[in-house]
Amino acid sequence: MINIKRVSLLLYSIFLCELFFGQTVLLHESIRDYDFKMPKDGPNFRHFNHFYVGYAFFIPLQKENEIEIKAGTSAILSVGWRYKFKITNWLAIGAGINYTNEIYNIKQIETKAVPDTILHSKEKLRFNNFGPDAYIRFNFGKRGNIIGRFIDLGAYCNWPFSVEHMYEDNLDRNTSANRAGVERVILSKLNYIERFQYGFKARIGLNRFVLTGTYRLNELLTEDYKKEVGNYIFPQLALGIEIGLHK
Amino acid sequence: MVSISRFLILRFVAIVIGIFFGTGLFAQGRYWVYLADKEGVKFNPYQYFDKKAIERRIKNGISLFDTTDFPLRQDYVSNIEQITGSINCELRWFNALSITANKDQIDKIRQLQYVKEVSEIEPGQFVTTGIFDTILQTEDLDLLDKQITRLQGELFGQYSFTGSGIRIAVFDAGFPSVDTNPAFAHLQKNGRIIATWDFARKKPFVYAYNPHGTMVLSCITGIIKGKKIGLATDAEFLLARTEIERENYAEEEYWLEAVEWADKNGADIINSSLGYTHERYYTFEMDGHTSLVSKAANMAARKGILVINAMGNDGNRDWKIMATPADADSVLSVGAISPYTDFHANFSSFGPTANFKMKPNVVAFGQLIVASTDKLEKVKGTSFAAPLITGFAACAWQIMPYLTNMQLFENIQESGHLFPYYDYAHGFGVPQASFFINNGNVLKMESTFEFLHEKDSIFIKVDKKYIDKQFFQKSNYLYYHIENNKNYLDEYWLVDVFNEKAAAIALKDYPNGVVLQAHYKGFTNSYRIK
Fold first, then answer.
1. What is the pLDDT of residues B1-48, one digit of tens each?
2. Taking CA atoms, what residue in A is nearest to B499?
3. Nearest-CA distance A10 → chain B (Å)
4. How far apart are CA A214 and CA A235, in angstroms?
5. Domains of chain B: which residue ranges?
6. Which terminal residue of chain A has fewer beta carbons within 10 Å of its beta carbon, N or C?
7. Model's pTM, two decimal places?
């Protein structure tokens, strides 16, 4: 009942307002608000910056000493900010910073040696990295105020501020100590991981849609550790996609 | 493991190569080569043109020996072909040819004495329609009637004006099922499809690919179970496939080629839903003179063809204004209104052009019923408003065959339900068949409102007897605008009126000399602010 009263009151108020003002504006356009001048900013201007997200998969290159990983689940999630400085219509340079979450899902096979030779149900190394990159961009064709087609070639450096070694074992449930059935262990502050990563980056894009490739040049394991376990390297190539968060 | 990773790498490399070479980034690019002259070229208009094209030229007082119609010098063409290996197309009107070439080849071509200019062909984008996947409901049958009656199209029908003798070229992305669809049975039966050409595949077969063209054609000429979808049911047609998906380099070339083809084959009207916007241009370039397609559309108009183009569907996006070539002076640009509110449909692009010329010229329903490949569908987009006007124009031209294309253009504007009022959302409004049936005579409406100057304001006072008081069925639409001293609009409004004092303009906001013009229920009046 109260609701009906309220609705009636609202309708009556609208009716009175309409009577008072004499009109309901259905459309109003002011041409003075239209801007037919060269825009002052945007993707095809001297200074442009934007955020992006990306996802890439590690691609094993079948090198002899390459650590075998599970393809498809070994990947990099990245979130970053990028700045572009346009020099000519076809050339630009830029830099950015990004956070990356790298996961190496290590295959549990007899020859496994890194981080150790123990076999588990699942085993991963997870890197949380932060670092800058720089690039040179080649653009193609006349375009409006859009990024258009481009190729970026650049380099990056990452600081792995947190690295975790995670593994999981299935236990014998029939023993009283192992009722839970699964044991998960996370080890951090690993002393066998290099303090920095660096490598090349390449991107091919059309506006906000980008194919990415990164190739890490250095090895992730410290020299001391390699002397112990052997000269193993993690996969260096990752291919993926990136979405620019801009118009 | 080995096979998976190799597969992934190969896949990625294939994609990269596809993007690079498929779009010609590193390998070859597409270019326009403009030639310097047509000296010594022979041209026989009676061999080249269709009979109707010659008739149109004579009617419009256009020379049959206009050099823009002459072919290109074949010695120039074959020299260039020797360098590149092939030619994509030739454009007589622009004395130009399209080629695919690498940098070395282009450098050689630039050095040729008879080459005036070389410019890269840029990719672009076409106007698309909105979502259109609705099954036809009973209420949509009313819409099918309304899309005709809103233009007073039933009057054309009563007097048997059906676009007979008018030849219409339709440029679109494909016409699947037009050869078998019952909505076009009358075209097939009476041999009304005069010529077809697929400019992408260089073949006459166009009855496949994207169904957009089928839907557009139905808005011009379709009949289903005796009900008209479009008005020009007896017109003749030239069907050109000029748009393809995933090949945005070539489409502009196809469109330009198709204009010449339509001219050669005697087209009276061209209907196109082409439109380039932010992918290639800035808004300040929408001035009717910058893009090649707008130049071509204007040239087609100079040759006596009425070019009708959709405004575009960017009204509720950042771009907001029309897509080129709808910006061209001589193109009849068509915007959309909603059949449910009878005013501007929010997706329909606004005018004016970047140099403040009025666009759109007229409007029609932008949400309507069309014949698709195998069923009737409700669709929306200015792509479908434009062909409704094309059908209307064909009937109007049948009534007044003595009009030139630009006279017809002006008459269609004058037949708009708002004329002489206009704004940049509705143009002159929805064309009305009664204007042509009555030979251009319009009933003079009695005054429905007056201007009142009180203190610091001008009021628009509506006559009480013209205010419909039915609360939920009101359509007391008052249109008014302010035209500045440079003869374009500063502001415009559409309001629904409840009270006699329907609108007020504060004088302090405007300089002397601006004109307040208003339109209410068929009556238009102006007031110069002093």
1. 344 445 555 555 555 544 444 444 445 677 888 999 999 889 989 889
2. A22
3. 15
4. 11
5. 32-120, 134-437, 449-528
6. N
7. 0.75
